[in-house]
Design goal:
Layout: E1 2-5, E2 13-14, E3 19-26, E4 29-36, E5 39-41, E6 47-50, E7 55-60, E8 70-76, E9 79-83, H1 85-94, E10 97-105, E11 110-117, E12 120-126, E13 129-135
Antiparallel strand pairs: 1-13, 2-5, 3-4, 3-10, 4-7, 5-6, 7-13, 8-9, 8-12, 10-11, 11-12
Length: 142
């Protein structure tokens, strides 16, 4: 089932405490696959139920004079570095990315995912988002 929203609309789902198993970038879409899926939330934002076999799709509208800014940074022992998506995907083959926090900015039209892969801390910043689509085998609205 499918549920799509614009970034500034109130959501019924959150990625907090979800486990990312793969990330793809295809035709101006960033697709995140979950081992343990996203959460259904109630009207107060409280997590109610975790879904399985999930994907989140971020659709972009990039201005002609700009490039997509999907910034992935990692830090280990207080040393931070930026890594390409292909390297991040290789790390996902060994371990999942555990999302600890998810922040959204309608002003920046962006999402910041903060979490870890093993002992490695990771931040994923995505901007120019036009639409977020949540997909799961069984969607349920609280």
């Amino acid at each position: 089932m499918e549920y799509s929203i614009k970034l500034d609309e109130k959501e019924k789902y959150c990625l907090h405490d979800s486990s990312v198993s793969n990330i793809e970038f295809i035709n101006h879409k960033l697709i995140i696959h979950f081992k343990e899926g996203f959460w259904i939330t109630d009207d107060n934002g409280k997590e109610v139920q975790q879904l399985n076999n999930c994907r989140t799709i971020y659709d972009f509208e990039i201005p002609e004079d700009e490039e997509l800014n999907t910034l992935i940074t990692t830090s280990y022992k207080n040393k931070e570095k930026e890594i390409p998506l292909i390297d991040f995907k290789k790390q996902l083959e060994a371990e999942v990315f555990e999302i600890g926090f998810e922040y959204k900015s309608s002003f920046r039209r962006g999402v910041l995912l903060i979490g870890s892969i093993g002992n490695l801390k990771c931040n994923i910043f995505i901007d120019y988002i036009e639409l977020i689509t949540y997909l799961a085998d069984k969607m349920w609205k609280y």
